[in-house]
Amino acid sequence: MLWGYANGWYPEFLTRDEDKLYAKLKFLLDHDLQETGVLLEEVAERSVRERDRLGAFLRDNDLHLTPTVWFDYLNADEGEARRQTEEIAAALRTCGPLMRAQSVMTYAGAGHRFDRNPPVEEKIERICRSIEPLAALCHELDMPLMIDTQGDFYSTDFVHMCERVPHLYIHVDTANIFWACERIRPAFERMAPHVMGTHWRDERVSIGNRKPRGVLLHNCVTGQGDVPLRELYPVLLEEAPAPDRLVMQLEMFGPPEMEAEECLRQSLAFIRSMREENE
User: Fold this and answer.
1) How remote is the C-alpha of 69 from its chain's centroid?
2) 68 - beta bridge partners?
3) Which residue, 152, 188, 196, 273, has fewest beta-carbon neighbours within 10 Å?
4) In the structure, what pLDDT confidence band is assigned to residue 215 with cuts at 50, 70 and 90?
5) CA neighbours closer than 13 Å in the CB half-sphere of residue 176
6) Within 10 Å of residue 185's Cβ, how many Cβ atoms?
C-alpha cells in the first residue's frame, strides 16, 4: 500500500524546488509519504535527459507517481478512441516504469448522470466502449486503470462500469460520495471490491440553503468531519481486490481559520492512528 498526497497544494507546501513536480516530491519526503498524481503528459513532454533524472530521483527516494490520462470517452468515435488509446499506450510504455506507477487514474469527464445529454444508460455505454481498450492496455502493463468518482455518477454506475469493462477499477473519492447524494458507507461498501485507489478526503456537512432542501460541505481536518474514514478503512482492507497495491492519496482542504501546516499535521496524525488500529 502506498500513502500519498493529491490535493490541495497550498503555496507553503511547494517551496523546496522551482520545478513544481520536484517541489511536490520533496514535500512527500518531508512528510513520510511516497506517492502523488501527475498528468501523464507532464512527464512524457520532458526531454529524455529530464525523464531519466526524474526516474533516478524517484527510485533513489522510493517515490511513485500515478499518471492521470483521459480523452473524450463520450464523444470519440471508434477511430478517434483508437488513436487516443495508442498515444496513451506509447507514453505509458515509455514513462510508466520510470514513474514507478502502480496504477493509472482516469475519470469519466462526461457531464452528469442527470443532465440527459445523452440519457444516462447511453452515456455509460459509450464511456465503457471507449475505455475498454485502455483498461486492457493498462492491465497488460500491470498498471490497472482506475476511474475516479467525481460526484458525477452513482456508486452503482461505477460498479456497473467495472462489471461491463474487464480490468477497470475504481479510484474512490470518499467525500465525493456526498456530491452524488448518496449515503457514504453503503456506497463505499458497494464500490470497495473494485477499488484500487482513493482520494482519502473528509468534509463537514451542514444544512444547506438550497430550496427545497440540500446540504453544504465545508473543508475540515481529515478525521474531524462527517466522512466515517475510520470505519471505512477496515472495509477497504477486507474488500479491496489487492489491498497491498492500494494507492491512498490524502486529499486535504483545511478550514479557512486554520493554517495549512497545522491542518496537515493533524490530518497525518489521524491517518497514522487509523493505520495503527488496523495493523
Assistant:
1) 11
2) 39, 105
3) 273
4) low
5) 18
6) 14
Vertex 53 angle, CA 47 and 57, to 5°: 145
Query: Which set of grid coordinates corresponds to residue 95?
Result: 514513462
b/e sequence 22-37, b meaning 16+ C-beta within 10 Å: eebbbbbeeeebbbbb
Distance (Å, whole) CA 253 – CA 8: 6
The confidence band for 208, taking pLDDT boundaries of 50, 70 and 90, is low
Is the pLDDT confidence value at 105 over 90?
yes
Would you state the pLDDT for residue 216?
80
**174 contacts 200 by C-beta, under 8 angstroms:** yes
Phi-psi region of 167 (alpha: psi -120 to 50; beta: other; left: phi over 0): left
Q: Which amino acid is at 75?
A: N
Residues with Cβ within 8 Å of 274's Cβ and at least 6 positions away in sequence, in order, are 223, 229, 230, 233
Closest C-alpha among 157, 161, 156, 124 to residue 146: 161
Strand ranges in 18-97 using DSSP code E only, listed in sequence order: 35-39, 64-68
Q: Is the dihedral of CA 278, 218, 170, 251 positive or negative?
A: negative
Neighbouring-strand partners of residue 65? 36
Return d(Cα 13, Cα 4) in angstroms, integer: 14
SS3 166: coil
Backbone angles phi, psi at 149, to 5 degrees: -90, 120
Rounded to 5°, the CA angle 75-168-58 comes to 105
Span 16-41, pLDDT tens digits: 999 999 999 999 999 999 999 999 99
Rounded Cα gap, residues 162 and 156, in angstroms: 10
Neighbours of 163 (CB within 10 A): 11
Q: Is the pTM of this model over 0.90?
A: yes
